[in-house]
Amino acid sequence: MTVIFLDIDGVLCTPLSVRLNWLFRRPMERPFFDPIALGLLRRLVRRTGARVVLSSSWRYSFEDDDPFMQAIRDHFYRTLEANGTPVWDLAPILGRSKGEEIAAWLEQHPGAGFVILDDRPDEFTGTPALKARLVEVDSMRGLRRRDFRQALDLLAGVAPGV
Q1: CA atoms lying within 13 Å on the CB side of residue 32
Q2: According to the CATH classification, is domain 2-155 in 3.40.50.1000?
């Protein structure tokens, strides 16, 4: 099994997507994600057969019973599903660093090949072994071709056909 641990802010949600939301006057509960980042994520999933595991701090608000937050969550899931990159699982919510939460997920899924797409390397200081699998995305640009290539390189040998 191969997985992509996916952060949202800075990876799919970028200054460009915020401007597009404003330009198209999208309602707040239906955010627009960066179209380039979505396309590259789709290509990465298709090329590697990897499944998406959400590791973003967005997970914390997804448990909220607030109707507004539920609308954002539902739109998010529909967007990724339509993109061909559905969320397969969530990293556990432990109230610790993202690195520790990903490490806990990996303990429950031994042998999983993985890559981490995130814009916050400071979330992994307590888990240095994970840093080698981290693609540090520029939060101002989001997921771009350089990041896509790095993720492919990291998945080479752990994902079938890569």
Answers
A1: 16
A2: yes
